[in-house]
């Protein structure tokens, strides 16, 4: 089936990214994997390549485009090579929409020029040790000082992707108590400078997968946040978070589809080279049938991911549609990657093979950005159930 989602510009970008990955990432990726993170200076290279500025207005050094299609190409190319770009995905997919949506002109001038170059890497801190999907239950607080010049931030966050290297973090905190009729009220968003006194990074978390993406615990003890770093209006944070969830969930869906597509590529290459009982593994009927079944599932996931991408770019992707795409694509990826690992036999369990790393990386897709169970609840609600 011919895809219509990408044009010549996207394909030219794909060639550039593929060459960059082969030259700058693949030769050192094992070192990143062993270290548990990409090096900080790698993000400057992404800035030079223009990765961070695609959707940033030209006046701040970006390309001024309004599309997620170049991000989609990135998902496909990193998956194809069996690598990832550390915490940079959070920088672009999660943090940038809040800056564009909420920042004042003065804030955009301060934030975006450094955002584009990678001089300031951004992360998003929602999750707390006691609150995962229940964002409204957060305990971190930000209290306005008596002289009204700053907020005093106290609390803790966990599972913060990009949290080790981040220079600024969008922190969600309570500025008011929840209302009896609305427990979501009272949350605000702050662009916190990670060099602030009282801000500390706890453990770099030891994850099952996504080993090159730094994930941290953060703690705030009387951190002074200037009022100039409040994003949007006080107490409307939950509403703002809801605005960006469809794009976040599309990103997870598209990334999962891309991983499944890559898994088939890895398995095909392996079974054509590997011999058993004097024959290539590819020559057995079971291998052909397994890969054919996987291909059919990936074809369907590609169609779903592409449709969601077009809707997102048109500003029409609903919460339920994003939830449906995430649920479907992540479940497909789970099945396909597992079957492709099986075709590798014992070697599929070895981290030196990309399929093993892909298997571990993929598992979180059904958890973060809202679990599969939460996605089902959103879809069911949209059905009137």
TrEMBL record:
Domain Acyl-CoA dehydrogenase/oxidase C-terminal: 235-383
Record domain Acyl-CoA oxidase/dehydrogenase middle: where: 123-223
Cofactor(s) it depends on: FAD
Stretch forming the signal peptide: none
GO BP annotations listed: branched-chain amino acid catabolic process; butyrate catabolic process; fatty acid beta-oxidation using acyl-CoA dehydrogenase
Stored Pfam families: Acyl-CoA_dh_1, Acyl-CoA_dh_M, Acyl-CoA_dh_N
Keyword Metal-binding assigned: no
Organism superkingdom: Bacteria
Pathway: Amino-acid degradation; L-valine degradation
Annotated GO MF terms: acyl-CoA dehydrogenase activity; flavin adenine dinucleotide binding
Keywords, ordered alphabetically: Branched-chain amino acid catabolism, FAD, Flavoprotein, Oxidoreductase
Keyword Membrane belongs to the record: no
Domain Acyl-CoA dehydrogenase/oxidase N-terminal per the UniProt entry, residue ranges: 7-119
Family, similarity comment: Belongs to the acyl-CoA dehydrogenase family.
Protein name stated in the entry: Acyl-CoA dehydrogenase
